[in-house]
Amino acid sequence: MIQLRVTPESSLADMPVRIHVSGLAPTQLVTLQSSLTDEKGVNFQARAFYRADEAGEVDVEQAAATGGDYVGVWPMGLFWFLKPEKLFHRLMKRDVMSGPFCFQLDLFDSCHLFPSPQVVPLATCTVERWYVGPGVERVPIKEGRVRGALFLPPGPGPFPGVIDMFGGAGGLIEFRASLLASRGYAVLALAFFGYDDLPQVLVELDLEYFEEAANLLLKHPKVSGPGLGVIGVSKGAEVTLAMAAFLEQVVAAVWINGTGFLNGTPLRYKGVHIPHIPYCPERLLITEMGVLDNYHIFKDPRDPAHAAAAIPVEKAQGEVLFVVGEADRNFNSKLFAEMAIERMKSHGKKNYTLLSYPGAGHLIEPPASPVCSISLIRGTPKPVHWGGKPEPHAKAQEHSWQEILKFLDRCLGLTSNL
User: Catalytic site residues (predicted)?
Assistant: First the structure.
């Protein structure tokens, strides 16, 4: 009897699963397909073609796909290489508490590029991918000026605290915070514009807002101190670096494809004011696919005229982890990371680590996330080009997530369940 097994059938979204087929004829050609409808009703699919071995089995951990959405040995390829039915849609869990993403896996005989509803699969199964572990609690935060959502692991604690931020689209994105909370951290998913009663447009980085958020988190009875971690991507990474430089509470900072300068928005903190490097919208490129390529709207940070806009990262007392996608098309994140590290070195600092991934793009996310090189975002009239090639980007997401967890564990004193 032909069987399609996925082990485990229910797991956290950043955990690997094993896909195994048995009962086939020796060397039989089959199609494995994954499909999912997201919270916006957009369908995502991935498929790959495999040949059974002499025992009539396909073990995706060891077998190489011969074609489809990927080629070669990719144990999680049916998740990493999901593509939207509607172009430029990004698969992202928006309501992490409402339940898991439920994937359907189908096994078809022979090679099927686009299986029709009339084609009956040889076997099928459902896989649950959760963004919150059992007992994780979500607490909406609307205290003082701070807006966001606090995720607390089960139990009395106290737990190491982390602030999690995303970038220039604004709003509140929670899937990374909920996964980190499932690993034992108390995580504040922090909004800083475009959410609730916060400003809809970001015109200034008021670092006192982020200091208020840090103090609020550390005062929580289930959060251990005296320090906390911060993780951010894109504009959130810029904020992360500024927090590391100015706030003594920050003992671990994870910077993912950000900048080391104030770009587009100045920074204010008590008596400190850091000017910004203006954008150059006239350098914006529109590709043949009608996609926005922002890479050239950022001026060269090496120009001495922009020296005053640099974030004084040498002031950081905690550890800083730089995560770089070398094929980032949003901006030259590799250059920004190298300049920040050189600045730290020139002041005798050694509290930095660099992870740099050739072929990876801007949106380096947990390994649960499909590779996304182009997507629609809030506030832009056309989709944005993030860069990255599928295979190296998928590997970067898997490796960097494990390294981020190790880094936070080391700096904040938690031994997580990897």
Answer: 234, 328, 362
